[in-house]
Design a protein that fits this description.
The protein is an alpha+beta fold. It has eleven helices and 16 strands. The protein binds one DNA strand through strand 1, strand 2, strand 3, strand 7 and strand 8. It comes from Labeo rohita.
Length: about 375
DNA sequence: TAGAATT
């Protein structure tokens, strides 16, 4: 774990000397890292709360001074590392690394709610601008959650290459409060790629900006710009989800795709569930170790698949979305505790066709769903040790 | 013509 934390914390002084971050000394960083490693090796800190949550006069919890949103987190940062980093500042009331509901992958942001507003302020001053691997994290107060601030992100294309981020903000600021803006640049030359993002505070502000600016030429520009709502990266299409699952599966089974034989195996993975039958029994057998296993299927309904290590929050929709892309699914079931109604950690999926079921198993067995590794196999006639 | 910003 220490190695993990060290790996994440390739701490560098932010390049931007205007950042408040620049005032923090190396001694402070080393203290933070030291604290983190102590906490990690000691496990989670205590849960006693000397101060209760701040309660406003109308009875609602007011966390506007304690609750932070953290953006631009490294993709591979875990909840544990996230908590360690922010726990090094002060006592945390709650924190959450936000993950994709289906794939379990980090969405690159999270929330930290401190017990003490002073610690929230300290976290902003200390950790905003911290470089973790290739990312520079942003730490700021979370706005109160509401529907009006969702889906307020715009994708802008056709921008003049000479237009700066500041220019773009100036153009859009007439429609509302801008939360973030970004112009994408060529990684080698650093020249604008003519596309960017603008996130407004409110969705209706974003709508007005589309009405006012889509198809318009900025002052002095030769071409009109396109302004539309950005795709939501957490709402992946079935195809994108599949690609991600296959990439994970292919990496597990073949490692980096350097060899022709491995490329061929990936082709098999990709083609099979789109109905292009270039099915290789050897590939499947090597991945699922079916030899000698006593299967229950096919029953009248199809092939029954056992899925183990689901989270207590798992529901049927997760199973549909995990297995659906591989072919015909006729039934899914999450096994729940009778009293709590939480998932007991496993479920079943029935698929009509053997090859599609085998492909789903080959791809999803060992698949990491959040911080859990799924075990997926054909259901056997023997009672599973669970 | 594509970022991981509302639990």
């Amino acid at each position: 774990m220490h190695t993990c934390v060290r790996a994440l914390l390739k701490v560098k002084k932010p390049a931007n000397s205007n950042s408040r971050q620049a005032a923090v000394t190396w001694a402070t960083w080393l203290e933070i890292i030291s604290t983190m490693e102590t906490q990690v090796s000691n496990g989670p800190s205590g849960t006693s709360l000397p101060n209760g949550p701040v309660i406003s006069t109308n009875g609602a919890t007011d966390d506007s001074k304690t609750n932070l949103i953290v953006n631009y987190l490294p993709q591979n940062m875990t909840q544990e590392e996230f908590k360690s980093l922010f726990g090094s500042i002060g006592e945390i009331e709650s924190c959450k690394l936000v993950r994709d509901k289906i794939t379990g992958q980090s969405l690159g942001y999270g929330f930290v709610n401190y017990v003490d507003p002073n610690d929230a302020d300290k976290a902003i001053n200390t950790l905003n601008g911290l470089k973790l691997q290739t990312k520079t994290i942003k730490v700021s107060y979370a706005r109160p959650s509401s529907a009006s601030i969702r889906d307020a992100n715009l994708y802008v294309s056709g921008l003049p290459k000479t237009m700066s981020q500041k220019d773009m903000e100036q153009l859009f600021s007439q429609y509302g409060r801008i939360i973030t803006s970004r112009i994408l640049v060529d990684q080698v030359t650093g020249i604008s790629r003519g596309v960017g993002f603008i996130r407004f505070d409110k969705r209706n502000e974003a709508e007005e900006a589309i009405k006012g600016l889509n198809g318009q030429k900025p002052l002095g520009a030769a071409e009109p710009i396109t302004v539309k709502f950005a795709n939501n990266p957490s709402q992946k299409t079935g195809q994108a989800l599949l690609t991600q699952l296959y990439q994970t599966a292919a990496r597990r089974f073949t490692g980096p795709l350097h060899h022709q034989t491995q490329r061929f195996r990936l082709d098999n993975l990709l083609n099979a569930s789109y109905g292009v039958k270039r099915f290789s029994p050897i590939t499947i057998d090597s991945m699922t170790s079916l030899a000698g296993v006593n299967l229950t299927g096919p029953t009248g309904a199809g092939w029954c698949i056992f899925v183990y290590n689901l989270s207590p929050e798992a529901d049927e929709s997760v199973l549909w979305q995990l297995f659906g892309p591989f072919g015909a699914v006729t039934n899914v079931k999450v096994i729940r505790d009778f009293t709590t109604n939480k998932c007991k950690g496993f479920g079943f999926v029935t698929m009509t066709n053997y090859d599609e079921a085998a492909m789903a198993i080959a791809s999803l067995n060992g698949y990491r769903l959040g911080d859990r590794v799924l075990q997926v196999s054909f259901k056997t006639s023997k009672q599973h040790k669970a």
